[in-house]
Structures are given as C-alpha cells and as structure tokens.
Amino acid sequence: MSIITAFTAGSTSAQKPAPHLPHTYDVCSVKQSLRGSASSWRSAPNGGFTATAIPALSLVMSAFGIQTAEGVSGLPGWATSDGYDVSCKDTEAADANETNQQRAISGIQALLADRFHFQYHRAEKPLPVTTLRVSKRGLKVTPSKSSTPNGSYGPTFIKAEAWTIAQLAGAITGLTGERVVDRTGSAGTFDFDLRWNLEDRDAGVPPGATVKRAALPDVLFLANVLNERVGLTITRQMEPTEMIIVDHIEKPAQN
Fold first, then answer.
1. Are strands 49-54 and 27-32 parallel, antiparallel or unpaired?
2. φ/ψ (deg, to 5) at 183
3. Are 94 and 103 in contact (CB under 8 A)?
4. How many Cβ atoms sit within 10 Å of the Cβ of residue 61?
5. Can you tell me whether residue 222 is helix, strand or coil?
6. Percentage of residues in the chain with pLDDT exceeding 90?
7. Of 46-50, 142-146, 244-248, where does mean pLDDT reach its minimum?
8. 63 in Cβ contact with 105 (< 8 Å)
9. How far apart are CA 227 and CA 24, in angstroms?
10. What single-letter DSSP state applies at residue 178?
11. Domain positions in the chain
C-alpha cells in the first residue's frame, strides 16, 4: 500500500459515493492478475498509479486513507483474496489547490464506484493505534531537497525521498501490519535511508535455542531503529477510529 492520508469522521447513514467527485482518471484498466503474481504499487504523475496483483481491499483502503484492513468491514471473500492489475492515468496536471495525493484519493473512489459498483457508509469504533511522536532529543532527519516523493520499503529497509512522516508511518504499517499514524505535528518532507538486520532480534536468545524468525519486522523492533536514527518514539493506545462499512461491491468487468 502506498497512498497514505488521514480521514475525518462523517455520517454513519448509508450512502453511495457522490456521482460527481472532484476528480476522475482519464483512463483506467482493471484486469484479474495471473496466479502467483507479486503485489506492487507504483505512483504515477498527476495522481495516477500502476498496481499489480492487489485485492479490492487495497483499493478501498487507499481510497479512504485507511492504513490497515481492520478499518474496513463487510467485504466479501473475493475482495480480499482475488488480485487485480490496475493502471490509472491522468493527462491533466493538478491545479495549485490540489495535491497528487488528493487527486489519487478522489480518482480511486470514482474507480470503485464505476467499476466495482461500490457503496458504503461510515461508522466509528475504538481501535488500537500505534503513534509516532518526536523524541525529547528532536528529529534527526533533515528536510528533503527533492520536490518529488519517491520511495520503497522491504523486510530490511525503508528508503525514500521527499516523504512526510505520515508516509513513513504508512510504510511501517505495510511492513508490520500494525496501524501506525503520525502524531508528530512535523510538516514538510524528509529523506529516509533506514536499514536493519532482522537477526539482531535474536541477540538475547540462548545458544542452541530454536527461534522461529518472522519474515518481517514488528513495531517493537522498529521502535529502536526509529528512536536511534530518526528521533521518533512509538506509543500504543486506543482511539475512536472511523471505519468504512461496505454495503455493496461487485467483481469488476475485465478490460
């Protein structure tokens, strides 16, 4: 997942997405993925994107700025298991009052309404949340000189240019599966080059002990990395969280 944004509370009454959203993509292709394809998501100019082998769940999460699957309820099984190759392009540049992220969110909502016949309503529920805050020593990263956000992450790294702290939180969510949100209040964008060795988690394990290592880091492991190299601390708490409740969704026609 790649598009990360906050969303605000809304009505809990059933509703369809507005028929005339602020922005729709010029061209969108949706096809079922070949079995065994690796999942990926790359941002494109003007808020477009190209994704491979992603479930409808990923589109819903991206369309509403939801960071983990627990923020969406009511999806049928195929919407979390079937993969789709999706490519959406836009030829018209964003105006001065609209960011690429805002265009992407609006465009994906329109895509869901048009191709998946998506209908939903909103509800609020207390959910566990992990927050990023600036440590007492302050941030250890410097503002980015790049104006174009670009980044990637994997089991042993996060590398990005011109990312906000919220985008960093989104990468941590993607790695750990735990909902992480930015509570730093820090504006601007930064460059991150974080690398770690997952074997470091076993430093205190007695010799000869059998250890079943996870393929990805957990939040507690990354807490040390973030504190030492970025100047961020992690806390856990329960917060009222807006959820997207799915009233209707259909498999899209192939094109």
1. unpaired
2. -125, 25
3. yes
4. 23
5. helix
6. 47
7. 46-50
8. yes
9. 40
10. S
11. 27-123+244-248, 126-239
